From TrEMBL:
This is DNA replication and repair protein RecF. It comes from the Bacteria. Residues 3-341 form the RecF/RecN/SMC N-terminal domain. The gene is recF. It comes from Neptunomonas japonica JAMM 1380. ATP binds at residues 30-37.
Length: 363
């Protein structure tokens, strides 16, 4: 799904930038504070109408401006046909997403522009809360199971209803049974999709990890959010008095997790910083590889400060892997020399220097 042209207006220190990215590798380089990450944020904004650095849009829009806009031409189907896609968002809360002359909604946009972001927050996949890992799994399920989004919304509605009943401190047994039946039905469907996704992801992850790091033993284990050896209805009944006290449902898919271990120990506790970066990158790149295998479409990779935490050898392996894929990559770094010698001469690599929000293609 390459982005063939990109215009960014009023995002942080970028007032107006237009350029034609390479279909393959784009290196964005510049000094601290020049706007490299802002450019990645702009592509993220195009795919999801929001930043990956802040939840508050007012920090993303250029100070004293009222609206941000990103306009692009994308090869959505990967067949060479370019179609216009534009996303704008105002301080008044208005969001407009237009694709090929039509308004589309956010979930249509997300499936149109599949993005994989690798930045310092990606460490959260190992070090952060289970919610981060659930988001990771659900990105994959969303992009591989068309019914997932409806199912997930339906499950969330049931969970909210059940929790509001629990908060009352007393719950009618008949009413509880009705909600529990729905809860169980959605929980089992969601869980089997998540399990299936992780099983499919494992071989891609192992293969990519081997290429990026070599012989590092990492295991992935999906945890459903309850003890799957026991029926969920029994466990819900058993946990009822605790749930009533707490005012929320303590077991279910809302507690799912992905345990990442090295030699049987939590990878977050055991691995070095560089090893962690390679493991979380392998997870993200495996999602991209699996997405391609299942849909025959390629993700756009946004990789902020690729060389940070990595020695030359591992930076090279990372670049060699990216080169072998068919993904469009936007990679930032401070010094372009740190990545310039890693590419084969026939790879389409474009270099862009950014200075105070102004972008110039250098080679
Ligand atoms: N809302 C805003 N309006 C205008 N400028 C902003 C806004 N938010 C941030 N900035 C400025 O935009 C610039 C770009 O920051 P960005 O994080 O993109 O830099 P960077 O090139 O990635 O830097 P680094 O190498 O330090 O990570 C910074 O100078 C920042 O102060």
């Amino acid at each position: 799904m390459p982005i063939r042209s990109l215009s960014v207006k009023k995002i942080r220190n970028i007032d107006a930038v237009s350029f034609e990215p390479s279909e393959r590798i784009n290196i964005i380089y510049g000094a601290n504070g020049s706007g490299k990450t802002t450019l990645l944020e702009s592509v993220h904004f195009l795919g999801l109408t929001r930043s990956f650095r802040t939840n508050q849009f007012r920090y993303l829009v250029t100070s004293s401006e009222r609206e941000s806009l990103v306009f692009s031409k994308i090869d959505a189907a990967g067949n060479g046909q370019l179609k216009p896609l534009g996303v704008s968002r105002g301080l008044d809360g208005d969001v407009a997403i237009r694709f090929n002359g039509n308004s589309i909604d956010l979930s249509e946009l997300a499936s149109l522009v599949p993005l994989q972001l690798i930045n310092t927050d990606t460490f959260e996949l190992l070090e952060g809360s289970p919610g981060t890992r659930r988001q990771f799994i659900d990105w994959g399920v969303f992009h591989s199971e068309p019914v997932f989004i409806q199912l997930w919304r339906a499950f969330k509605r049931v969970l909210q209803q059940r929790n509001s009943l629990l908060k009352c401190g007393k719950i009618d047994p008949v009413l509880r049974q009705v909600w529990d039946q729905e809860f169980i039905q959605y929980a089992e469907q969601l869980t089997s999709m998540r399990e299936h996704y992780i099983e499919q992801l494992k071989p891609d992850f192992e293969e990519i990890l081997l290429k990026l790091v070599g012989d590092l033993s990492i295991t992935l284990k999906f945890s459903a959010g309850w003890d799957q050896k026991r029926p969920l209805d029994e466990l819900l009944a058993e946990n009822l008095s605790r749930d009533l006290k707490q005012g929320f449902t303590s077991i279910g898919p809302q507690r799912a997790d992905l345990k990442v271990k090295s030699e049987g120990i939590s990878a977050a506790e055991r691995l070095s910083r560089g090893q962690k970066k390679l493991v979380v990158s392998a997870l993200k790149l495996a999602q991209g590889a699996l997405f391609h295998r299942l849909s025959n479409r390629a993700c756009v990779y946004l990789i902020d400060d690729l060389p940070s935490e990595l020695d030359k050898h591992h930076s090279r392996l990372f670049c060699e892997f990216l080169e072998q894929t068919n993904n469009q990559c936007f990679i930032t770094c401070v010094d372009p020399e740190s990545l310039s010698r890693f590419w084969e001469p026939d790879t389409a690599v474009a270099y862009f220097n950014i200075e105070a929000g102004q972008l110039v293609q250098t080679h």
